[in-house]
Amino acid sequence: MRSHVWGNVKLDTTGLIDRKVVRFMSDASIYAFLSMEQAIADAGLSPEAYQNNPRVGLIAGSGGGSPRFQVFGADAMRGRAA
């Protein structure tokens, strides 16, 4: 499925997610997480409505994630080559 919609995200995410968690997240993961939080707030859902509820889930996709992390992963794999 092709999409002709794109945007250049200019968002200072500093302090929006716990730094112990965010250090393991790519840019795409950070944007997905923040979008999820905003969607929950926009829907007016309380934590009781979605926490520990087996009928609640999230389906998310990304066209390619963060190119920076793709290069990092490829470089790491090349370093492991015999």
From TrEMBL:
One of its GO terms (molecular function) is acyltransferase activity. This is Beta-ketoacyl-[acyl-carrier-protein] synthase I.
